[in-house]
Amino acid sequence: MKLDNTFLWGGATAANQIEGAYLADGKGLNIADVERVANDKHIRKVDSKPLKDIYYPSHEGIDFYHHYKEDIKLFAEMGFKCYRMSISWARIFPNGDELEPNIAGLEFYDKIFKELKRYNIEPVVTLSHYETPLNLVQKYGSWRNEKLIEFFLRYCRVVFERYDKYVSYWVTFNEINEILNQNEPYHQAGILFNDNENRFKTKILVSHNMMVASAKAVKLGHEINPNNKIGCMVQWPLTYTATCRPKDMLARQKFMKNDFYYTDVMCRGYYSNVCRSIWKEENLTFDFKKEDLYALKTGTVDFISFSYYFSSVVKMNSKDKVEKLDGNPYVKKTSWGWDIDPIGLRLSLNQLYDRYQLPLFIVENGLGAIDKKDESGDINDDYRIQFLNDHIKEMMKAIIEDQVKVIGYTSWGPIDLVSVGTGEMKKRYGFIYVDKENDGTGSLKRKRKKSFYWYKNVIKTNGESIE
């Protein structure tokens, strides 16, 4: 099997996990800058401001801010056709609500895009990847407040216009569907709940404001340049039923509703029966403004981008409640307990394409593992090669055999970075090793792993080397 030359191979990162330089050149604080690992169990704590003598993983990241030339050169050596990255909103508007942008922040991304262009690497830019400016959370209540739509669009206009000659692919919000799936969607929307707050209602209102902002950004981006391709981004948890019992099938349908909620609205342009059924389950109704509903209708996305790491299994328990099982007995697990299910990626591609008939973009897929150096100092990460080989093989089957339209594939963490989930460095994803430990110590020196050369060959052969 072999893909054509237009397929976009590459890797994906997020600014808050790699850039560091968290207050450099006028950057403001964002939600990641006050998040820390509290103890060895990796319980996250969120502070009102950075505290002295406390380690915050995002403050240095892997210092991409000062190593970007070296890192992009390594990406180019692998043959990247594209690089999915995010712009830190707080670098451009430090408080999020200013009228004028921070020029130094804009100039930093000027340098990034020029360096990518030098190697003919196509940027795929996420506008908001867990990087909401902290001031917008503390002053306005984050996305509970519809004023954030105005602030987000001001930011979008600045970067759409500034980087028009460099960027054609844009993504609005990272893993937006996790708002409903998370108990407290801090990363996705900067939300920390108040006492006695109706959490479900807040999640729906927050989701609405963000989806309206996304739709208006799509429309704005097309007005600025009709050639812009602007997509949504969701975390896709393909779900199986524990048995063929009809009630278990019903459990699967219910479990996936939260994810279809977002793609239905952002791809179809309206709140579907699936969306309304979720409201009904909570005995709530929502009377959204006509202009908001019009924005959703006229700002549907051009493509669906998604992350895929694992699949899930559910059943209906004796109380007729959906119950998620602790793993799938037919697949292996990662060191962090995630099911390894390459065929699930093929099924996900078919599921999304069949439902929406929009081009798909796999923008995150990878294996977090503890990498150890051998006696010569090399990292022979055959386990990562096997994981990625098996997933890419199933992706290619979906494209070639199932005729699913896929724009590209960007592995998560082509270079080791700070884990957003646990704040760890030892949970490594990269083809490139970064000498940094969980406590922040290390030289930050970069080193190619065995998987670096493997992925280089995959790109060179357009997948023909996949076994």
TrEMBL record:
<comment type="similarity">
    <text>Belongs to the glycosyl hydrolase 1 family.</text>
</comment>
<dbReference type="GO" id="GO:0016052">
    <property type="term" value="P:carbohydrate catabolic process"/>
</dbReference>
<dbReference type="GO" id="GO:0008422">
    <property type="term" value="F:beta-glucosidase activity"/>
</dbReference>
<feature type="active site" description="Nucleophile">
    <location>
        <position position="364"/>
    </location>
</feature>
<dbReference type="InterPro" id="IPR017853">
    <property type="entry name" value="GH"/>
</dbReference>
<dbReference type="InterPro" id="IPR033132">
    <property type="entry name" value="GH_1_N_CS"/>
</dbReference>
<dbReference type="Pfam" id="PF00232">
    <property type="entry name" value="Glyco_hydro_1"/>
</dbReference>
<protein>
    <submittedName>
        <fullName>6-phospho-beta-glucosidase</fullName>
    </submittedName>
</protein>
<dbReference type="InterPro" id="IPR018120">
    <property type="entry name" value="Glyco_hydro_1_AS"/>
</dbReference>
<dbReference type="InterPro" id="IPR001360">
    <property type="entry name" value="Glyco_hydro_1"/>
</dbReference>
<keyword id="KW-0326">Glycosidase</keyword>
<keyword id="KW-0378">Hydrolase</keyword>
<dbReference type="GO" id="GO:0005829">
    <property type="term" value="C:cytosol"/>
</dbReference>
